[in-house]
Amino acid sequence: MGTKDSDLSNKASNDAAKPNIAFIGLGNMGAPMAENLLKAGYALSVYDLSEEATQRLQQAGASVADSPKDAASNAQVVISMLPAGKHVHSVYLGENGAAGLLAELPKGTLVIDSSTIAAADARMVAESASKLGIDFLDAPVSGGTGGAIAGTLTFIVGGSADAFAKAEPILAVMGKNIFHAGNHGAGQVAKICNNMLLGILMAGTAEAINLGVKNGLDPKVLSDIMLQSSGRNWTLEVYNPYPQVMENVPSSNGYKGGFMSKLMQKDLNLAMQTAKDTDVETPMGAKATELYAAHTVENGDRDFSSIMARHDSSVLS
Amino acid sequence: MGTKDSDLSNKASNDAAKPNIAFIGLGNMGAPMAENLLKAGYALSVYDLSEEATQRLQQAGASVADSPKDAASNAQVVISMLPAGKHVHSVYLGENGAAGLLAELPKGTLVIDSSTIAAADARMVAESASKLGIDFLDAPVSGGTGGAIAGTLTFIVGGSADAFAKAEPILAVMGKNIFHAGNHGAGQVAKICNNMLLGILMAGTAEAINLGVKNGLDPKVLSDIMLQSSGRNWTLEVYNPYPQVMENVPSSNGYKGGFMSKLMQKDLNLAMQTAKDTDVETPMGAKATELYAAHTVENGDRDFSSIMARHDSSVLS
């Protein structure tokens, strides 16, 4: 479960220096991230709408709060992992006239939002935080639920260098690679650039393998050749979309688990929105978005490598 | 210049066992490939329409022939490196009623065609060869003129296992990775699948970097993040399309050298033709083909990473 030896060995001596953390959002990603913080000796107060989710964390040693404000009442650091921009907006800035969490936090609180949302939304929250003397970081992750459980996530962070330096040891408990992408919003921008490219790689690799197979090539032989040639990419390295070419990947397990097609589509839509807002052309990304939009109609819950089925529906059986 | 120590040290003892080779087509790729064979101790008879090209090889130790037939008159192996399918057809099968080279070769001759042509054309020549008892291999390369000079090309070979085994030590003089992709035509199929995917990777990576830059990210920081995340691909590893992110790549040298956009477009067109002939859909490949077709109108002689200029023409200056 990814707890790191160095953290365990330091637990006794360092707990006193560790900030209290409020953790908001205990879904498939948030729950294991919070558990890794507990294992590393951080005192956690957690909040989620789901009682099942909070009970799980309570058993792991967290105290359970009734609201985000309650969770943050004794915290120096707030971490959130929420489904979409509207939830982040609601929690931090409030809605229907009610004040958000930012207004309740003392100056100097460090807020780390690991949700994947539009860069514009992240910048809006960061600006409000800044006016209140609160350090806000957008820190979306990649690595999926497997990475969240193992504590090997990649964090892509936007915000000030000072706030990044404060956040880094905490993020290092939950992740392996921690990048400072730039100022506010840069974490979200870098993540959607990466995930747009990933969608292009996956759709393109699936179609290149299919072209070879339909012309008599063995999918494994072709994959090996491209892996050692200029077609090399992450999907051929660790995530081949053709069944039985690699072991222990979703394509060899009925496209179960992994990163759901509908989540890839969400990220592609964010990339398209960002491109549109900033008047940038992304023809390859737009084509990948179109393919995933059609694919998710029936296959949204399957891993995103199931885009292979667009070319050959027999791979689903 | 890539001559390998093992070949040099074996030269004296092994020359007697080395087959005589006819080499047809001494362009930017063929000439350095032929030179590497000479350096490894093979006796070469060469043919090209260009006198300048044949003189260069003559100075390097080759004998110069007046025709493909003349070049092959005392050869057990024929290697060709020609611009397109029509030239391969003409040399081996003849044209305007004249017989081609195949009809002149003794049974058991090994023919290796390293041109990049349509798989259907390669299969047609292979079939004619087979009827005459001649072993034909399609063996297109990747690695460009740099790889040809250094003797580090990748050969992707289609044909019988027996013929492949005979060809392998000869190809190993000119290349580093030698793949047996399958039966006749499989080398061409695998190469165009790889190069279609490469076109997709390059166009997609250029556009992902541009989206980040236009949203305030540093191109090197974003490239580093994607390189260590799921956007990783060959172009980010060794061939970044954004100027000054990497040293010693065409993008940092005015997009000179490398692999010309018009050659990428040729390969993409071959992929599209193969897809059409075999009723296979390639939407990402088709989009990349469309982008390169527009790009080559003015930039055909620039390296194919100059597709970056589609988004930001200032990179050309």
UniProtKB/TrEMBL annotation, chains A, B:
<keyword id="KW-0560">Oxidoreductase</keyword>
<feature type="active site">
    <location>
        <position position="191"/>
    </location>
</feature>
<comment type="pathway">
    <text>Amino-acid degradation; L-valine degradation.</text>
</comment>
<dbReference type="InterPro" id="IPR029154">
    <property type="entry name" value="HIBADH-like_NADP-bd"/>
</dbReference>
<dbReference type="InterPro" id="IPR036291">
    <property type="entry name" value="NAD(P)-bd_dom_sf"/>
</dbReference>
<dbReference type="Pfam" id="PF03446">
    <property type="entry name" value="NAD_binding_2"/>
</dbReference>
<dbReference type="InterPro" id="IPR011548">
    <property type="entry name" value="HIBADH"/>
</dbReference>
<keyword id="KW-0101">Branched-chain amino acid catabolism</keyword>
<protein>
    <recommendedName>
        <fullName>3-hydroxyisobutyrate dehydrogenase</fullName>
        <ecNumber>1.1.1.31</ecNumber>
    </recommendedName>
</protein>
<dbReference type="InterPro" id="IPR002204">
    <property type="entry name" value="3-OH-isobutyrate_DH-rel_CS"/>
</dbReference>
<dbReference type="Pfam" id="PF14833">
    <property type="entry name" value="NAD_binding_11"/>
</dbReference>
<dbReference type="InterPro" id="IPR015815">
    <property type="entry name" value="HIBADH-related"/>
</dbReference>
<comment type="similarity">
    <text>Belongs to the HIBADH-related family.</text>
</comment>
<dbReference type="InterPro" id="IPR013328">
    <property type="entry name" value="6PGD_dom2"/>
</dbReference>
<feature type="domain" description="3-hydroxyisobutyrate dehydrogenase-like NAD-binding">
    <location>
        <begin position="185"/>
        <end position="308"/>
    </location>
</feature>
<dbReference type="GO" id="GO:0006574">
    <property type="term" value="P:L-valine catabolic process"/>
</dbReference>
<dbReference type="GO" id="GO:0051287">
    <property type="term" value="F:NAD binding"/>
</dbReference>
<feature type="domain" description="6-phosphogluconate dehydrogenase NADP-binding">
    <location>
        <begin position="20"/>
        <end position="182"/>
    </location>
</feature>
<dbReference type="InterPro" id="IPR006115">
    <property type="entry name" value="6PGDH_NADP-bd"/>
</dbReference>
<dbReference type="InterPro" id="IPR008927">
    <property type="entry name" value="6-PGluconate_DH-like_C_sf"/>
</dbReference>
<keyword id="KW-0520">NAD</keyword>
<dbReference type="GO" id="GO:0008442">
    <property type="term" value="F:3-hydroxyisobutyrate dehydrogenase activity"/>
</dbReference>
<dbReference type="GO" id="GO:0050661">
    <property type="term" value="F:NADP binding"/>
</dbReference>
